[in-house]
Amino acid sequence: MLSRRAFLSTGFSSATAATASAGPRPPNFVFILVDDFGWRDTGYNGSRYYETPHINALARSGMTFTDGYAAAPVCSPTRAALMTGRWPARLHLTAHLQGHASTPPHAKLRAPVTRKELPLSEVTIAELLKRKGYATASIGKWHLGDPGFLPTDQGFDVNFAGTWDGSPKSFFYPGWEGKPAGVRGRAGEYLTDLLTDRACEWLKQQRSNPFFLYLPHYAVHVPIEAKREIAERFSRKPAAGGQNFAEYAAMIYSVDESVGRVMRTIEEMGVAGHTAVFFTADNGGVSSREWRQRQVTSNAPLRLGKGHLYEGGIRVPTLVRWPGVTQPGSVCRDPVYTCDYYATMAEMAGAPLDSSHRPDGASITPALRGRPMRERSLYWHYPHYSPQLGRPAGAMRRGPWKLIEHMETGRAELYHLDRDLGERADLSGRETKLFESMRAELRGWRAKVGAQMPEPNPDFDPAREPQPPVEPLP
Q1: CB count, 10 Å around CB of 293?
Q2: Residue 72 to residues 43, 320, 386, 408: CA-CA distances in angstroms?
Q3: Is residue 35 within 8 Å of residue 290, measured between CB atoms?
Q4: pLDDT digit string (tens) for 264-287?
Q5: How far apart are CA 168 and CA 392, in angstroms?
Q6: 57 half-sphere exposure, CB direction, 13 A CA radius
Q7: What predicted TM-score, i.e. pTM, was given to this entire model?
Q8: Is 382 exposed, middle or buried (CB count within 10 Å of its CB: 0-12, 13-18, 19+)?
Q9: For a tag on the chain, would you pick the N or C end, based on fewer CB atoms within 10 A?
Q10: Domain boundaries, given as residue ranges, for the chain
Q11: For 26-374, which CATH superfamily applies?
Q12: Residue 346 in contact with residue 86, Cβ under 8 Å?
């Protein structure tokens, strides 16, 4: 077994990289999805408070995407986009499941009632890969439906801990008993560790099979609970860049340890050289006081966080390591997002797309090979009120330009992200031709995909409507 010191100093062995994807065997896939993980919650991306040595090593050994996005500012829609390659708006799955019909009673708009599960008619990436002979496992958070719509109903051979639930009652057993349903552990066991144990055990059974491991952690979602000894160490560390929550830092540290354990396992199995690893998050970090009236993290310089279509809510850490293809330590500045991974993995595996199921995303294999991506627009649709005080909105990005349209008022804003990452200088009044063009494109896209829109709320009371979030100064 590699020592922690050796693993961190070398990243991953050059010997395994030399065997990458040689011959006809398609690559294995490990897809790690972290919940509510902010763009600046990693050391490689600028955090000076959180410690992510294994994620940093993964970044050094593969390609980082500076402009990686989640398909939505909340969890379930992004997960649906990952499984299907489709826009959440097309799927009519645009809210987290427990919030699919929720509207604050006196808000100006009434959010549409959206799907409560990923339809079985969709061809998931697990189903597509199974047709190519892949063994498939989902180990962790599912949040895409009740029994009848679980991972094993959607192409996965194995489902461990994947239920309707969006968060555990606790990260320590027996505190999580019943949520996630059916998952048991040892007294005091930490859920992030248990998921990693199961993932590594399953991997070791796949030495002769191409495999797809989907590892969606419940962390670092609330409840903010961490191992005491790690949290105590971070409590002695000075705050940096607005990040100072020791328990949250310790949760991140445990996820980072999980990444290290998974990577060591595929190294020890001798398959790291033909295993592609994807690492990203389902939405931006929680910048609101969602946990016991304390701000969870800071996404600065990005604006706001989870539940909002500003950059803090949708821009997320994004890494891909495809040995023999991605150059170690390479950086891509082309915008990519969750909808793209379906077509990407299908192309990498040589898995023909189902004629009845065409993904909306694009394969990012050109970027992984060091070539520029074809320019295109990215779209977001969130016709809901979020628990983080987000309001119904739509957004699109074209090149460096980003437009956000607020559905309560019809007002829209335009930002140049290369010059204004914090989205503070609204240029809609100056770049009027571009502004109107993008606004027309966004509205045309919504009509094309049949996006559900909110309607006027007959119980609207301006004296009691939800108030917008208080934004920290940039």
Answers
A1: 6
A2: 24, 20, 12, 19
A3: no
A4: 999 999 999 999 999 999 999 999
A5: 27
A6: 22
A7: 0.94
A8: buried
A9: N
A10: 26-374
A11: Alkaline Phosphatase, subunit A (3.40.720.10)
A12: no
